[in-house]
Target: TonB-dependent siderophore receptor
Amino acid sequence: MNRSVILRGASACALAFAFGSKALAQQSLPPIDVGASRPQTGARGSVPPANSSVTQSTAASPVDPEAYLAPDASVGTKTDTPIMETPLNIQVVSQQVLQDQQVTTLDEALTNVSGVSVGGGGAFSNGGAYGVVFLRGFRTDTHFRNGFRIDGFGNNNALLDQQFANVQSVEVLKGPAAILYGAVEPGGLVNVTTKQPSETPHYSLQQQFGSYAAYRTTASATGPLNQDKSLLYRLDASYENDGSFVDLGYTRNLFFAPVLQWNIDQSTKLKLELEYQNSNIDQVYGFTPLVYGAPLHTERSINYGERSPFNEETLFSGLSWSHDFNKDWSIKQQVMMNRDKTAAAQIEPFFIAQQNTFSLPTPPFPPFTSSFLTPSTVGNLVDRFSEPYSLKTDIYSTTVDVVGNFDTGPLKHTLLLGGDYYRYNYRGDLSTTFNLSMITVPFLGINLPNFTGGSLTSLWAPFHPGTPFGPAAPLYAFAGQADNLGLYAQDQIKLPYGFEVLGGLRYQYLNQRNQFTDGNCFATATCTLDFLVKRYGELDQVVTPRVGLLWRPREWVSFYGNYTEGFSPNLGKISSDGTLIAPSSANQWEGGVKLELFDGRVRATGAYYHLVKTNIPVQAIGTQFYTTVGAARSQGPEFDLQGEILPGWKAIIAYANTDVIYTKTNPILDPAHPVGSRFEGVPRNTARLFSTYEFQLEPLRGLKFGGGYTFHGTQPAWNFSGINFHTYQVPSYGVVDLLAAYEFSVGTSKLTAQLNVANLFDRKYYTDAEVQHFPTVPFDAQPRLFGNPRMLKASLKAEF
Model:
């Protein structure tokens, strides 16, 4: 288990109209026929059928596959409701955006959405580049696949390992989503939608090459399996083998995803899908030496750790079916299972140490054993520790949704009735190479292992491998289970004069259990899964509401507001009295405006929100126990724009000012986070500009150029010192990206050659950092994680 678990509306409308007014003053818009009929986006309020993802439009939807703009998404309502008619903030990263940016990881996709960032790299993500997503300032390691929940449990790399060979789009629902998705963090959720079988045969093969000996091969095939096209298939597969700018780093990934769909008749569909993935990385933990508290200049390539293999094997299976009773009523069910196995060496640089020059108690220690008396006044060695661990996780889920359309006088209703059941089981164990001699900590009254089994390498010229580690021994084991049951009802009502009302309730039942080995198990050699003697349980029931109001006076503008409540569990966190910490709760007010310009080719959303999360767990200093004394507030404006401004010219603009602070803490139990202090890991300002232009006329037709700029503001470093002092601020940074692509035909095949350059000016920056104590002597260290240097990615893709 990683160290984070072990140790620890009106104003928005005015802003949006001001932005729009400025744009209108600079150029005249094409005439808009308010009374003209608009293309339909499917049957009113229909449930997405089994042959579509949760948010993919129905076959009747005229979706342009090369568009940056998605007309509808059901992630917010579970019905095919146009985004302009949804009183919620929903953003979609379309397939064309993913292709233009050559997106292969989830963080690359999420940079296109305001109020979203990633973090928790290094020690927080098993040596990966990131492990959590921040939505409106609140962290989560949970994401959804076509509405199926995938939890990280703080130990696997579910977010980092998300593959894109079969991804159609990435959707973000902002704000609490408990009414439809149960116990999730209040900032929002990320939903990945996958590609579906097609009646038209299509095949593709793509080869990508990149910096640091990176290559990735992707193949896909889809079409009918019989003459009447009632049986359809799809297969997506990829293999990736990448080096790294960090010494010893690598990534290897094998992925394939078959889908079989049976269109039984015009009203009934059945779908079976599988995903298999095997991921291997070398864990990299950021480590920056400090001299009198100032960072020592080091190259990004230096690895003070060691070869630290991480393997994760995942198998997903799903069965879904849908049936249309008539044009107004339909039903859909999904049954899903996800099994994950993780094993990691977890070798991490820990301290700047000095060569041991005094006698230690028995047993005898190998040469150059660290004294672990840090910070060091000499500073010639780096001490590393190894804590191998394994984790097995099983997730089971089923969801049933019934959607009906009916009228009551002038009111048009879209009614959703649904229920879901979600269960997870996980079991894991942790070992350590620290020798098992005992030392007594008087103020705790317990025995702890003497930290003397680490490995050393040179601070000034790291060598690999370093001195040998001591033998590994079990440190503790853990297990957890939870049953989640939810029942929900929602009604979308169309009123006269362009008004629409959204209202709903959810009943949530949560029963969670956790088991651990005894705190002194290392003294009795009982730190394995056979000795889970400490047992804890927590049972919670809650009702969460959501209401929203939207007014669409014209086809191109919608004003909206909503109030939502959230509910999120605090998995595995134990209080000093031996009980599990109760779940957190949240509530949010939001108001905004949505504009569709240029005949609906561009959509802009401006919003302002105020979100409060209560019952936040705070870890007591020097212990593994938590208490719920915390509360936090997040608020600020957000702006998103996507679409095609002129033929061939597409753009994305995103900006957020995320003001998230602690509003209630306990200065005795948690002096490091006083009231008013900012959340760690969350930048106050983020911005994204990305644009492409594709020539529309010969002879340059098919040629595309583009680029983007990403700004990430300063963010507080993670403070684990237990002291209230002005902690290190991770500096802001901005990076520039470029792309060039050329699409041409050879016979009946389409070929696309593309080159993307990330961080064009090779900006050196940090993405994450933590403070473990106040630096007081010449040599010390601070965990920091470097961002990627300049990276090139070339691609050649054939479609036929």
About this structure: The chain has a mean pLDDT of 83. Residues 10-26 form the longest helix (17 residues). The radius of gyration is 27 Å. The domain at 72-194 is CATH 2.170.130.10 (Ferric Hydroxamate Uptake Protein; Chain A, domain 1).
